[in-house]
Amino acid sequence: MTDTARIPDKPALEGLEAKWGGVWETEGTYRFEREGATRDAVYSIDTPPPTASGSLHIGHVFSFTHTDVVARFQRMRGKHVFYPMGWDDNGLPTERRVQNYYGVRCDPSLPYVADFTPPHEGTEGKTIKPADQVPISRRNFIELCERLTAEDEQQFEALFRQLALSVDWTQTYRTIADEALFTSQLAFVKNVERGEAYQALAPTLWDITFRTAVAQAELEDREQPGHYHRVAFAKPDGGHVEIETSRPELIPACVALVAHPDDERYQPLFGTTVTTPVFGVDVPVVAHHLAQKDKGTGIAMICTFGDVTDVVWWRELDLPNRAIIGFDGRIIAEAPEAISTEAGREAYAKLAGKTAFSAKQAVVELLRESGDLLADPKAITHPVKFYEKGDRPLEIVSTRQWYIVNGARDEGLRDRLVQRGREIDWHPDFMRVRYENWVGGLSGDWLISRQRFFGVPIPVWYPIDADGEPMHDQPIVAPREMLPVDPSSTPAPGYDEAQRDQPGGFVGEHDIMDTWATSSLTPQLAAGWERDPELFDLLFPYSLRPQGQDIIRTWLFSTALRAELEHGVAPWSNAAISGFIVDPDRKKMSKSKGNVVTPAGLLDQHGADAVRYWAASSRLGTDAAFDPQNPTQVKIGRRLAIKVLNAAKFILTFEGRADAPVTVPVDRSMLAGLATVVEQATRALESYDHARALEVSETFFWTFCDDYLELVKERAYGEASAEQASAVAALKTALSVLLRLFAPVIPYAAEEAWSWSNEGSVHRAAWPAVDELAARGEAGVELLELASLALTGIRRAKTDAKASQKTPVSSAVIAAPAAATAILASAEGDLRAVGRIADLGFAEAEALEVRDVVLEVPQEEASA
After folding, report:
1. Residue 733 in domain
2. Which residues are annotated as a binding site?
3. Range of the domain at 813
């Protein structure tokens, strides 16, 4: 029964977040109940760990709400929901933020300083130039990284709690914590043991700002201005071959010219040599199918290395390596051996030490002087590869790196990864194609090593020979019992610290793993793989991987890869892919565009229920436009939450029981309609269509409030009778069902209203079932629909007469088809009561209308 003392005089959303957030935490409402759980009874979610660097944006609110609706639905279905929260706190974004926030940079050669105080504490959005950053030791730098990420994570958790994410906060993990280090390093060790991880010296995409290698999945093309330069290469017969290049500074690194094998213009040159301008090196003319006959002059330079196609040509045509760009993006001092003429070496000396940009200008001048620049440079715009978080174009340098196989060179593995993708139910299904296209387009194995500081150390050492040279082909891989381990501070097994960096001793691997090499193991990390086998067997493979569409190629693919290599299964049965948030001009929100909206102010102003409603209104895979100046959907969501509170208060003031017999046809009709809503909403949520579930529930709710509640309130207010009890029972039954339908989307309002008449949390209540309504709602949904139309007609007649809705009516006629009037007759009493109609008649007509309305007061008086 309802305790009216629980119902506030004026229900409001304000204060509910603090009230219920504390209750949920104290009572453990969202805790994963491991004890007694079986595999079939568990619903496990591989939650995206947001990067703990900077601030959350509206996209996090958007996608995490989608996941939370699923978690709440499954919990109400009786599942033991495993819903952890992770923080992705290692990697480049964190380092970059620390550098700018504290005004420091890492120099591993420096000693540790105890009680170090950084020169800055926040820079109020200003960027500190690298030259002004104070160099500190690696250990000091990592301590600052840990300090700042811990502060960011506290702010993120507070915002997610305000948003009412029903995660189990006791299951939180960090990708830099000891458990994560152990899991990442153990998986790597197993990859090495199985031959799936290897080290190689190879051309590597390199970010010269961060001084680190970059993987294929981290690339993005950006349109950049440039110029085509038409340049002459000399033929032995005195003629020349014309090429067009956007990178003339790489002419000293040229190892061949290439044309398509079917290009008749150059077929006579295949197998001959030409001489590079200025630098005087003889290079072969070769054929390859990747050459484009319709690009430029149809013949191109192969340089080591201008772009990824150069790497393919270099590898497949077995060409020499004459790389000239160093890790700092400048031309290295020593000229390639192939440049042997005095003039060529003098020309190269003019480039040494210059940036690629300055070297380009210098080479263009040298070409002009030699007469080998055949035309003025032609302005172009072309795509250039960048690291997704970088500011300068990538270069390609030769480095020794660690790789994990990913199917690029193994057709069997590639086919298995495609098959695993097909074993997953994708929501929406078309997102599967993006995964398959990525797998099919891989051009090289996964480069996982990074030349950075804050991350998971690669657990490897190398012996040093008698001459003091590391023997990279004989790595010493850490045994399991040493994990987690940092080779830069712990000696290799069988050695002591005094032998570090000494002939006959060892050197520790300084590189760390790419952050995706840890994030790709979030299922294993959160479920206690190799740490808690019982829990792991309970959770893995997971039920759901929710994420954004932009990281299918990184997070989703890499997780599927690690699961295949380690377990031979798909890591989840479902993948739910959210769309992007776009601004009012339909442009994707990003920090670089300056159109990102942070959610804190939005939550404070409108409330979490309102913001969640906006997010839940968008289907998976669909981009959602958001205008912070006019957040229409957010305002609609707030209106809905307030209406739920007010409707609940109104209904709960009626005297009567929810379990009383429902006997009046219009009451039974309403419950029949609600049963259909429950069936549709349940089916939608089972299909991960939260937007459809919200749509059908909300549509019914407004009809319920505007029409049914108005239609029966006079009867519900009346003297105790079977008819009065029927109305109250129907109202309270519907309220209970509606609060449960809305609970996943507007959890605060639903919990508050539920608490007025129930014990325990609505979020632990059973999801509504059709069966609980079916036996009480057999009158058919059309009765309520017809009664609603008739009620609308009565209201319109009074409005047209400029009369109050409370004005009594002497007589009125409802005209409708014969079948409709027969149905409506059973609601005559409610229609007369709500319309204050003394004499209500029925007549036949082609369409339903209310006519012959006679008010009990003159129209003039009513108008006054």
Report:
1. yes
2. 591
3. 794-855
